[in-house]
Amino acid sequence: IKTILKTNKRPGVSYQVLSNPEFLAEGSAIHDLLAPDRVLIGGDESIEGSLAIKKLSWIYEHWVPKEKILTTNTWSSELSKLVRCT
Known about the structure:
By secondary structure, the protein is α+β, with helices and mostly antiparallel strands. The protein has one domain. It is 43% helix and 12% strand. It contains four helices and two strands. The longest helix has 14 residues, at 47-60. It is globular, with a radius of gyration of 14 Å. It starts with a helix and ends with a helix. The mean pLDDT is 92. This is UDP-glucose/GDP-mannose dehydrogenase N-terminal domain-containing protein. GO terms for molecular function: NAD binding; UDP-glucose 6-dehydrogenase activity.
C-alpha cells in the first residue's frame, strides 16, 4: 500500500501508513472491539510516524486504558498479527 501511495503522491499531500491489527475472537467480536485486552499500533520509525502513532493512540484513549495501547514499528505489528493467527 505504501509503495502505491508513494507512486501516486500529489504535491503538498502528506500521509503515514499505520498498522493496527485487530485481535477479535469469533463470538465476542463486539465485546473485543469495545473492551480490547490490547491495541497494537505500528508505524514508521520517524518523526512523522511517531506523530501518526500518537494521534491514533489518542483516539483509542477515549475508551481503551492507555496501558493497553502498545506501539511498535510496522513490521513488528504485522508480524504480531501473523503469529497470533497461527
